[in-house]
């Protein structure tokens, strides 16, 4: 028995993530050389490691060979969903990803004994269907035709293409699956379900191309209006779940709808729109808990903690805005609303002006179901993509694209203006290193160690940074330091660390002490946060509170931007000061003592040292002996390191001239050139400081007066409602303006004049006066004539 226990402790079977015992099964063991001998056999690496949440993707388990062909392989996801695995001719173990109703990291286990035990563990990344590569999906040729099929002028054949090498089989079957959510909305019995409906074609050659003429589906399938096609092996029985397959994008199933739709699509769609309207009016008002949109495009792109690019309208990818023509860029609120899991959308014109539905059907529309879903996912309206399709997209087809009833849709999905929008507060760290606090105070702190950048009890937000000395041009150690790692956690969220890899100097991202790969996906849905690899040298972290971090490489060090919404006011401590719009108390020690703004460089160095991380609260990963010996087992602030203080820097005359040409009056840049003797380091600091200043400008508050209505029987010119903007009013032909011709948005957030009225025009009044006046004259002459005749007769 003792021998068995000892063997178990020496093995990673059922121990993945455990670092206790004679050997480790924790991800850090690879760098430390402390792994159990079978670590890679039981703690699995897979390739590929991600795929669409629609499932059907084959992945192979690395480092694991299987030679017992009699026992079956079973892959179990989230302790409940089982799929059949297989072993290939090279004895490699494979699994098929299942159809899921959630995105994010999905734990799985593998059984090699027909399900008697599941000792092998790994993680699969399930991705929003629209965020996976197009090569991983089947393509609807001319997707718009598919979704308008049966409307006037849209008939004929439809075509489908796919990468046939992704399906290693001779013959395939093409199936239609439908999606629906049933039960009472916002109750426990509200459920989401994908259902196999019927087969379009079976046992056709796997040529990568299929074309057909759609026929109306039988009535028992008509209730499904949203769905997707699946291509799979013809050897599978119809609708067999969780098998190797390729899916199309989810889409409006116009092409399968009944003869009544094809006979009069407008009447059919109008009836559907009216039914949606009736249901919508019975549901809770989700608009009241959505955040207001940023006022300008610059604000929207700078507020990266709360808003992120909408992939359906992206200025970085040509502004192809199918549902919002006239816009060049849209953003979505990163986090779903707390109660109803709804989402905000904000769209902008080329001039940077917000585009509102009150002015145009191209305006931004909020969503009852957030497009990206909401934790814990799986149930309506939190299912990524699909809940959004049912409550916000298919209804747009009913009311706006298939029938002229868009005003009904826009009335229930009105754009948010920005009158209550408050930009976040920005703090930055860059260079050697230099700190600009949330309240705008500047600080240079050249400590060596690990320090608290920010702590906020209101959400238990913690941000920590590691600073290490730089290198002079002659290869010796500089007396200046810079950030080489940043770690963050909020509440019980995942811990994310961004650091410079030791030798290559490239960005490396760790999740809960395990190095992440972004080779397949640049976006990850994680516990309590979203993570985006914006570029190979820039990472964006979006936390559930609305706080955001951007970590990038600038020169030899990291540059960090931290954005905090108003809820953090008066709740922050650390090297980035107390966020309260008062720069005089930013140098507050742990004890509560406040150093004056004019404190000496030596006093400020002690302020920085006071905010060293405590070992018990460190968020960092120590997965090399260098990190263990230099940071884990050493004081978090190195008392032996002698920094270079700003008032002690000197430059030779030639260096001073070069620095002056490069830096001008930027004291951060000048300091870093003096500290390192390297102009490129100074230039990196200069660029980082300029980016900070630009972002501060972009985040400046803007006064909005709100939407201004056009006059009845008239129109207006001007769709900008920010301070200083002027709207011009005009009347339709035959009407004249009563009131001011213009109104200007004032600094107090009110319009200078209300919307005027358009009254029946003066030209009509004059014409009527002439007509009636002429009739009166004729009548008077007739009366006089009659009287004169009578007088003559007498």
Low-confidence segments: 1-7
SS class: alpha+beta
Strand residues, percent? 25-35%
Number of H/I helices: 15
**Rg result:** 33 Å
What features would you describe in this structure?
By secondary structure, the chain is of the alpha+beta class. It is 21% helix and 27% strand. The strands form nine sheets. The chain has an eight-stranded antiparallel sheet. A seven-stranded antiparallel sheet has the order 29-28-27-26-25-24-35, covered by helices on one side. Strand 32 and strand 33 (548-554) form a beta hairpin. Helix 8 packs antiparallel against helix 9. The longest helix has 32 residues, at 762-793. The model is unreliable at 1-7 (pLDDT under 50). Residues 703-760 form the Sushi domain. Residues 425-619 form the VWFD domain. It is found in: Membrane.
Give me the secondary-structure topology.
Blueprint: H1 2-9, H2 29-32, H3 39-42, E1 46-47, E2 50-52, E3 58-65, E4 74-77, E5 81-84, E6 86-87, E7 92-96, E8 104-111, E9 120-127, E10 139-140, H4 143-148, E11 158-161, E12 171-182, E13 191-205, E14 209-212, E15 226-233, E16 245-247, E17 251-252, H5 259-263, H6 265-280, H7 297-302, E18 307-309, E19 329-333, E20 345-348, H8 386-401, H9 406-412, E21 425-430, E22 434-436, E23 442-444, E24 449-456, E25 461-471, E26 477-490, E27 496-500, E28 507-511, E29 514-515, E30 523-526, E31 529-535, E32 538-543, E33 548-554, E34 557-564, E35 572-573, H10 601-610, H11 625-632, H12 653-663, H13 667-676, H14 679-698, E36 714-717, E37 726-731, E38 735-738, E39 742-744, E40 757-760, H15 762-793
Parallel strand pairs: 2-9
Antiparallel strand pairs: 1-3, 3-7, 4-5, 4-8, 6-7, 8-9, 10-11, 11-14, 12-13, 12-15, 15-16, 15-17, 18-19, 19-20, 21-22, 21-34, 22-23, 24-25, 24-35, 25-26, 26-27, 27-28, 28-29, 30-31, 31-32, 32-33, 33-34, 36-37, 37-39, 38-40
Helix pairs in contact: 6-8, 8-9, 12-13, 12-14, 13-14
Organism: Sciurus carolinensis
Domain SMB: 8-47
Subcellular location: Membrane
């Amino acid at each position: 028995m003792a021998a068995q226990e000892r063997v178990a402790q020496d093995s990673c079977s059922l121990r993945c993530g455990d670092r206790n015992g004679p050997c480790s099964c924790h991800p850090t063991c690879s760098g430390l050389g402390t792994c159990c001998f079978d670590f890679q056999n039981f703690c699995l690496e897979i390739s590929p490691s991600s795929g669409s949440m629609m499932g059907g993707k084959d992945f192979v388990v690395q480092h694991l060979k299987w030679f017992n062909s009699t026992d079956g392989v079973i892959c179990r996801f989230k302790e409940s969903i089982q799929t059949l695995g297989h072993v290939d001719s090279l004895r490699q173990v494979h699994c098929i990803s299942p159809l899921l109703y959630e995105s994010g990291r999905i734990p799985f286990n593998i059984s090699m004994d027909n399900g008697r035990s599941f000792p092998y563990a790994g993680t699969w990344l399930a991705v929003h269907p629209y965020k996976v590569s197009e090569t991983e999906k089947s393509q609807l040729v001319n997707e718009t035709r598919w979704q308008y099929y049966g409307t006037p002028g849209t008939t004929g054949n439809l075509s489908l293409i796919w990468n046939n090498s992704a399906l290693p089989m001779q013959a395939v079957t093409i199936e239609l699956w439908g999606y629906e959510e049933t039960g009472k909305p916002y109750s426990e019995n509200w459920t989401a379900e994908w259902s196999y409906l019927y087969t379009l074609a079976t046992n056709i050659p796997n040529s990568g191309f299929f074309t057909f003429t759609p026929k109306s589906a039988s009535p028992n399938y008509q209730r499904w209006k949203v769905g997707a096609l699946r291509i799979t092996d013809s050897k599978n029985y119809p609708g067999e779940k969780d098998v190797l397959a390729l899916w199309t994008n989810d889409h409006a199933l116009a092409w399968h709808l009944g003869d009544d739709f094809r006979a009069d699509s407008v009447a059919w769609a109008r009836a559907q729109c009216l039914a949606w309207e009736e249901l919508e009016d019975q549901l809770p008002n989700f608009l009241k808990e959505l955040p207001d949109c940023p006022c300008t495009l610059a604000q929207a792109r700078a507020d990266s903690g709360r808003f992120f690019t909408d992939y359906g309208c992206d200025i970085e990818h040509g502004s192809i805005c199918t549902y919002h023509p006239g816009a060049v860029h849209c953003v979505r609120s990163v986090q779903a609303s707390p109660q109803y899991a709804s989402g905000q959308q904000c769209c902008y014109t080329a001039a940077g002006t917000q585009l509102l539905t009150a002015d145009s059907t191209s305006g931004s529309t909020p969503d009852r179901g957030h497009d990206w879903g909401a934790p814990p996912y799986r149930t309506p309206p939190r299912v990524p993509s699909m809940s959004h399709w049912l409550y916000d997209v298919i209804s747009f087809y009913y009311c706006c694209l298939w029938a002229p009833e868009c005003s009904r849709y826009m009335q229930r999905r009105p754009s948010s203006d920005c009158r209550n929008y408050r930009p976040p507060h920005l703090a930055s760290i860059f260079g050697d290193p230099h700190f600009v606090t949330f309240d705008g105070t500047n600080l240079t702190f050249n400590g060596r160690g690990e320090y608290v950048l920010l702590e906020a009890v209101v959400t238990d937000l913690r941000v920590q940074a590691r600073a290490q000395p730089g290198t002079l041009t002659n290869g010796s150690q500089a007396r200046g330091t810079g950030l080489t790692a940043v770690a963050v956690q909020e509440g019980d969220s995942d811990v994310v660390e961004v650091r410079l890899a030791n030798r290559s100097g490239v960005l490396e991202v760790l999740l809960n002490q395990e190095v992440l790969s972004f080779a397949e996906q640049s976006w990850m849905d994680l516990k309590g946060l979203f993570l985006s690899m914006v570029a190979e040298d820039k990472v964006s972290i979006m936390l559930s509170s609305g706080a955001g971090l951007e970590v990038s490489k600038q020169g030899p060090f990291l540059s960090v931007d931290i954005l905090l919404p108003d809820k953090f006011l008066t709740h922050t401590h650390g090297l980035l000061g107390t966020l309260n719009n008062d720069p005089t108390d930013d140098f507050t020690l742990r004890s509560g003592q406040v150093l004056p703004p004019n404190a000496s460089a030596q006093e400020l160095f002690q302020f920085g040292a006071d905010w060293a991380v405590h070992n018990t609260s460190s968020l960092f990963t120590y997965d090399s002996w260098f990190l263990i010996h230099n940071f884990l087992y050493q004081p978090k602030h190195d008392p032996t390191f002698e920094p270079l203080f700003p008032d002690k820097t000197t430059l030779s005359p030639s260096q001073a001239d070069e620095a002056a040409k490069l830096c001008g009056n930027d004291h951060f840049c000048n300091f870093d050139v003096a500290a390192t003797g390297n102009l490129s380091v100074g230039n990196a600091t200069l660029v980082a400081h300029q980016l900070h200043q630009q972002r501060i400008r972009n985040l400046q508050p803007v006064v909005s007066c709100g939407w201004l209505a056009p006059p009845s029987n008239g129109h207006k010119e001007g769709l900008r409602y920010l301070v200083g903007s002027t709207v011009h009013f005009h009347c339709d032909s035959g009407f004249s303006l009563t009131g001011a011709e213009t109104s200007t948005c004032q600094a107090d957030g009110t319009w200078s004049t209300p919307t005027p009225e358009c009254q029946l025009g003066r030209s009509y009044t004059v014409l009527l006066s002439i007509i009636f006046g002429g009739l009166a004259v004729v009548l008077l002459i007739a009366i006089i004539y009659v009287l004169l005749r009578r007088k003559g007769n007498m």
